[in-house]
């Protein structure tokens, strides 16, 4: 059976709209907010409103019968999120992460919330709080607690590296409801930032994505209604914490798409520099018969294409309700490694233009590194992939 790798026509408007925003809103202010870390990009307020309106229209459209010839094939919200992230990251990854109502916590809500919760939290801007001072990529090591007290949960703990933590109006917090039950007791809670006991302890100073704030949040006897727990409150030891981990199956392909968008920007600039130097890329010639830098460009471009195909597959599987944990990790691992390779090589080939602040190449190289780290490091992704391929559990393969 032939595979059609073209994007469905219904996404044409998404590509056009998001690329225009990247080109005419993000690129002109990219350096401004890189130099003004922690200053909120007010230019994004109107874009946030438009994005929210657009999502409401798209949600209604996705509720209709699929337009594709094969009614069993669905290209829905996950694919659309992928495309939006790719196009807007071509403009600026940090600014994408700063758009109101587009937080990583929103993806968590979409992944595991029940219909009532989806309605209740439909208009929020939610950050996501997972990592703690005592652990990095091991999400099962969560020590923040959520203790049931009548119709409420009382949350205590500290979270670090919370993207948009001081700007979002809500935060999705991972906490354990029973430490003795291990990872099965880890649940996610939607917590309003105005909740008494929730404080922003500090903002981090970072290598890249400086236009996006990264916060440390503290929770001291912060009370939330019991129905703010996403998904089922039951501690199912057989299912472990697959419910909250499903969040990553949705968000990892989106982070991969961010890497792909940034990688494309760097490839385009690298190609322009090669052509200006008199070394055009000729696909009709063997790579080895061309200038060494051209040969390297072709290698990088092929890796970029592979990253994109991995990512499309993961998003398509999510839209079609197919388990995609391995594919989500594959897309994140491949794209994260590739974008750092592309941007570092572009800086190397660009020489003075590559590390000068007169252009964006050096900024892209700084921004790229986080895309190989957050939502699970390269090493964590490889571990997950190995477990899926070998059929091993987390206890068998650590």
Automatic annotation (TrEMBL):
Which catalytic reaction applies to this protein?
a 2,3-saturated acyl-CoA + A = a 2,3-dehydroacyl-CoA + AH2
**Residue ranges of every copy of the Acyl-CoA dehydrogenase/oxidase C-terminal domain listed in the record:** 244-390
Keywords annotated in UniProt: FAD, Flavoprotein, Oxidoreductase
Q: Which cofactor does it need?
A: FAD
Query: From what superkingdom does this record's organism come?
Result: Bacteria
EC number(s) recorded for this UniProt protein: 1.3.8.1
The Acyl-CoA oxidase/dehydrogenase middle domain covers 127-221
Residue spans with biased composition (Basic and acidic residues)? 55-68
One GO molecular-function entry: short-chain fatty acyl-CoA dehydrogenase activity
Q: What class of enzyme is it?
A: oxidoreductase
Q: Which PANTHER family does the entry link to?
A: ACYL-COA DEHYDROGENASE, ISOVALERYL-COA DEHYDROGENASE, MITOCHONDRIAL-RELATED
- Membership in a protein family: Belongs to the acyl-CoA dehydrogenase family.
> What is the protein named?
Acyl-CoA dehydrogenase, short-chain specific
Gene behind this protein: bcd_2
């Amino acid at each position: 059976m032939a595979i059609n790798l073209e994007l469905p026509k219904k996404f044409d408007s998404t590509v056009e709209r998001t690329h225009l925003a990247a080109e005419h809103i993000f690129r002109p202010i990219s350096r401004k907010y890189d130099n003004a870390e922690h200053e909120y990009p007010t230019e994004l307020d109107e874009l946030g409103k438009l994005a929210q309106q657009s999502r409401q229209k798209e949600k209604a459209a996705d509720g209709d019968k699929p337009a594709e010839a094969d009614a069993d094939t669905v290209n829905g919200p996950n694919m659309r999120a992928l495309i939006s992230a790719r196009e807007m990251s071509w403009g600026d990854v940090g600014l994408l992460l700063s758009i109101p109502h587009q937080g990583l916590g929103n993806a968590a809500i979409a992944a595991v919330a029940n219909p009532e919760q989806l309605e209740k939290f439909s208009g929020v801007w939610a950050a996501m709080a997972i990592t703690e001072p005592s652990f990095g990529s091991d999400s099962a090591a969560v020590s923040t607690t959520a203790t049931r007290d009548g119709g409420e949960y009382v949350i205590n703990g500290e979270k670090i590296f919370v993207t948009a933590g001081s700007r979002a109006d809500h935060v999705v917090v991972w906490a354990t409801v029973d430490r003795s039950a291990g990872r099965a007791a880890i649940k996610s809670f939607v917590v309003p930032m105005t909740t008494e006991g929730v404080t922003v302890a500090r903002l981090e100073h970072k290598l890249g994505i400086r236009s996006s704030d990264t916060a440390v949040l503290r929770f001291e006897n912060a009370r939330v209604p019991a129905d703010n727990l996403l998904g089922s409150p039951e501690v199912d030891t057989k299912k472990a914490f697959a419910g909250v981990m499903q969040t990553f199956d949705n968000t990892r392909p989106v982070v991969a798409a961010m890497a792909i968008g940034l990688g494309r920007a760097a490839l385009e600039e690298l190609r322009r520099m090669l052509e200006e130097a008199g070394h055009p890329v000729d696909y009709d010639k063997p790579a080895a018969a061309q200038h060494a830098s051209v040969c390297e460009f072709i290698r990088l471009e092929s890796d970029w294409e592979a990253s994109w195909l991995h990512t499309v597959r993961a998003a398509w599987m999510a839209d079609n309700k197919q388990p995609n944990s391995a594919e989500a990790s594959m897309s994140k691992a491949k794209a994260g490694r590739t974008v750092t390779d592309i941007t570092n090589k572009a800086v190397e080939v660009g020489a003075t233009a590559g590390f000068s602040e007169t252009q964006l190449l050096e900024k892209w190289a700084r921004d790229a590194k986080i895309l190989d780290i957050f939502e699970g490091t390269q090493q964590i992704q490889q571990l997950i992939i190995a477990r899926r391929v070998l059929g091993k559990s987390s206890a068998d393969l650590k």
